[in-house]
Amino acid sequence: MAKDNKKLEVEKLNAEIERLKKELKKRKKYGLVWEEKPEEVVEMCKEKLPVLKEVKSKEIITDKNKPINLLIEGDNYHALSVLNYTHAKKVDVIYIDPPYNTGNKDFIFNDRYVDHEDAYRHSKWLAFMEKRLKLAKNLLKDTGVVFISIDDNEMAQLKLLMDNPDLFGENNFLSIIKWRRKITGGGSNIFNQKTEYILSYARNKNRFNINKELTRPEAYSNPDNDLRGPWQSVTIKASVTQAGDRKPYTIITPTGKKIVGQWLHTEENFQKLLKDNRIIFPNNGNGIPRKKQFLYEVSGSTPDDLWLDCGTTDSATRMIQNMFGKKIFDTIKPVELIIRMLKLTCDKNSLMLDFMAGSGTTGHTVLQLNKEDGGNRKFILCTNNENNNGNGYKIATDICYPRIKKVIKGYRNLKGEKVEGLGGNLKYFKTDFIDYDESTDRNKIKLTAEATEMLCVKEGTFEKVMDQKKLKIFKNSNHHTGIIFDQAAIPAFKKAIKNIKGKFSIYVFSLGDETFDEEFKDIKQKVQLSPIPEAILRVYRRIFK
Question: Which of 207, 283, 371, 393 has its CB 3.0 to 4.6 Å from that of 422, i.e. a possible disulfide?
Answer without folding.
Answer: 371
